[in-house]
Design goal:
- This protein is mainly β.
- It folds into 4 domains: about 90 residues, no CATH class; about 160 residues, no CATH class; about 170 residues, Flagellar hook protein FlgE (Tick-borne Encephalitis virus Glycoprotein, domain 1); about 200 residues, no CATH class.
- About 10% of the residues lie in helices and about 35% in strands.
- Strands 18, 22, 25, 26, 28, 29, 31 and 33 form an 8-stranded antiparallel beta sheet that branches. The chain has a 5-stranded mixed beta sheet with strand order 40-39-41-17-42, with no helix packed on it. A 5-stranded antiparallel beta sheet has the order 19-30-27-23-24, with no helix packed on it.
- It is flat and about 90 Å long.
- The two termini are about 20 Å apart.
- The N terminus and C terminus are likely disordered.
Length: about 675
């Protein structure tokens, strides 16, 4: 059984220092700020033993750590000759000495007024601000009338998360049930302005028993709970779980209180991966449209400057697939045309940087983009906001951002960018259009640009986009340039010498069984105790003794975001893929394998909403030291060192979980 003080006081530690049996010895490193020295203080089921300690036979037990080994988990411990959990014995203990300071603490789920409380030296009812008094080191118990809602170690701020049922382990169910009941009993039904328990609550709950450790659905169905609500409130059911959680999280966040969760969960896999099996491998060629015609701003024309060109794809059987690109075609239409060839996949985009430069005085530019006009003198900020507002309507897939004097415009398809610009202060103002070449809107590519000067006569600027060709490894691609009527070659959409990049993948798709060798699943829990499923997919790669491991939680990617990608891809989670290696004797090669570790995972609730107080997802690899500094997130270390690679199926070993999860 996890001891209360160790769980509440030492939760920030990565391991429990006491072993967590029926009693523990607090080490000096566990004591909290402003509290007396707890070194070698014996705790019995979370209660500080003030007097000599005896076992059930009456034998005195020394508090020294060396004598504790003789006490079994089944021994009944007594304090001053009375049962350790005897309420009256606790209350009969001596009041604090004059030298002991009386502190004021607060109970929070909003401030809770009207909770009865008692410690070894004090008792009372929480004030309007949820205040109670205590002496450092005391255990405190809270009540709704006669109903105990839990016991904890007194401190400056306590929440339902700090409470456990007397003599029991920490339990997520307890936390949730207390939160919902407190908010339901609030006299005005509006917990955002504080929670107040009616003064006469004790008149209605005599003899009621509520087991807060029950699963939330069973707790909500208790007969005594129904009677309590019927007698004391105008509602017949508890506040809904999502609503109660949302309020609780908001209250704690405002106070800067972290919500504790599972600090480190290790899932150990023990077994064997079949070395003979291999998931199918895919090899494709890729080529980027980096020719001299690409993404050059064309001043004074509605044409993007892309000249006609003829591509020929040759398959492994010598079959030719000619594709003719008409002059002036957008990158989007080029992608559509090339994708008609079987075994070819083409995507496109567009990107431009516009430098407004220093303005002579006030902004007098008139500006329009792809048929959308902006008010005369509109600032870059106003233009960017207007473009983003239309990304799902009249400017589909187009977004904008600003930096300094520059406006960045990106499209997730290769549509032409058509600008119309007029105005500005003649002789002073100018505007530059800078091609980005790499397609990511950073302005860091080739940097072809065109400039226009202020003029009362409107000027047109057109910018073409990019395209990526991906085709089967067995294909060859080359260019047969067309002759113009005036003679000479046309078109330079691809490099003159086409040297594609060969990309090797295992074609992994979790929806397709023959693209991976094995999958295994584990139940995991977020810091609010909600159940999720972690899935590991194993794929044998072409390299000898090498495998890829893909990690998903709730069938969602957990590989972090890539800010180098164009919007909106830069905000999407990437695939979490890890490379692992086995030695020639079949044992696991820890040194050359990546450590599979999911850290600061942002869970999605089973009902579809996100717990927005969690941190972003990060994946730790290689020899990174995992310092768990913030217990508000849930972390998973997948230990593969117990795996071998011979010729049988994998088996799953024990799972190690730190906190008891909801059931």
């Amino acid at each position: 059984m996890a001891c209360l003080e160790c769980f509440l006081g030492c939760r920030m530690k990565s391991v429990c220092l006491c072993g967590c049996v029926a009693l523990c010895v607090m080490l000096s490193g566990c004591k909290k700020d402003n509290e007396r020295d707890y070194e070698n203080t014996l705790l019995v089921d979370g209660l500080s033993a003030i007097g000599p300690v005896e076992n059930a036979t009456g034998d005195s037990v020394n508090e020294g750590a060396s004598d504790l080994a003789g006490i079994s988990a089944t021994d009944t411990l007594t304090v001053d000759g009375a049962a350790a959990l005897d309420e009256q014995a606790l209350l009969a203990q001596s009041p604090p000495l004059d030298s002991e300071v009386i502190y004021v603490g607060r109970f929070i789920d909003s401030s809770v007024e009207g909770l009865a409380y008692q410690t070894a030296s004090r008792r009372g009812v929480t004030s309007r601000d949820g205040e109670f008094t205590y002496v450092v080191g005391e255990t405190i118990e809270f009540f709704i009338g006669d109903i105990s809602i839990g016991v904890g170690v007194a401190g400056s701020v306590l929440t339902p998360n700090n409470l456990v049922t007397r003599g029991e382990e920490y339990n997520f169910n307890h936390q949730f049930n207390v939160i919902r009941l407190l908010q339901t009993l609030d006299v005005d039904g509006e917990p955002t302005n504080g929670i107040k328990i009616r003064n006469d609550i004790n008149d209605f709950n005599q003899g009621f028993v509520l087991d807060f450790d029950l699963p939330v659905d069973l707790f909500a169905e208790l007969d005594d709970l129904a009677l309590l609500l019927g007698e004391t409130s105008n509602v017949a059911a508890l506040v809904s779980e999502p609503l109660a959680i949302s309020h609780y999280v908001d209250s704690l966040t405002e106070l800067g209180i972290e919500i504790p969760g599972v600090e480190l969960t290790t899932i150990n896999l023990v077994g064997n991966l079949d070395a003979e099996e291999r998931a199918p491998e895919t090899r494709v060629k890729q080529i980027f449209s980096s020719g001299e015609d690409i993404n050059i701003p064309q001043i004074g024309t509605g044409d993007n400057g892309y000249k006609g060109q003829k591509f020929v794809l040759l398959d492994s059987n010598g079959q030719r697939y000619p594709v003719i690109i008409e002059g002036g075609s957008s990158a989007e239409s080029i992608a559509v045309t090339l994708s008609r060839v079987q075994g070819v996949d083409v995507t496109s985009s567009n990107s431009i940087t516009i430098d407004f430069g220093p303005l002579a005085s006030s902004n007098s530019w008139q500006f329009s983009f792809n048929g959308q006009s902006f008010p005369a003198g509109a600032s870059m900020q106003e233009i960017a906001i207007s473009i983003n507002d239309k990304t799902n309507t009249t400017l589909p897939g187009i977004s904008a951002s600003i930096g300094g004097s520059k406006l960045y415009i990106n499209a997730n398809s290769g549509v032409n960018f058509n600008f119309y610009v007029a105005g500005g202060e003649v002789g002073t103002d100018s505007m530059s259009f800078i091609g980005n070449y790499n397609g990511y809107g950073s302005g860091s590519g080739r940097g072809d640009f065109g400039s226009i000067n202020a003029s009362v006569v409107g000027q047109v600027v057109t910018v073409g986009g990019f395209f990526w060709i991906e085709y089967d490894e067995e294909y060859d691609l080359y260019v047969e340039s067309l002759f113009s009527s005036a003679g000479g070659y046309q078109g330079d959409l691809l490099p003159n010498l086409i040297v594609p990049t060969t990309v090797v993948t295992n074609g992994f798709d979790r929806e397709v069984d023959d693209t991976f060798n094995l999958v295994t699943h584990f139940d995991v829990f977020d810091s609010l105790g909600y159940l999720h499923v972690l899935s590991l997919y194993f794929t044998k790669t072409k390299g000898e003794n090498r495998w890829s491991v893909y990690v998903f939680i709730d069938d969602l990617h957990v590989g972090g975001t890539n800010p180098a990608l164009p919007p909106p891809q830069d905000e999407l989670q990437n695939q979490a893929k890890f490379d692992v290696v086995f030695n020639s004797d079949g044992s696991f090669d820890t040194q050359n394998s990546q450590t599979v570790f999911v850290r600061d995972w942002v869970p999605e609730h089973s009902q579809g909403y996100y717990n927005d107080y969690f941190l972003p997802i990060l994946i730790g690899v290689d020899n990174e030291t995992f310092l768990i500094e913030n217990p508000s997130s849930t972390n998973f270390l997948i230990d593969l060192s117990g795996l071998t690679q011979f010729g049988s199926s994998i088996t799953i070993g024990a799972e190690t979980r730190v906190n008891q999860a909801r059931k």
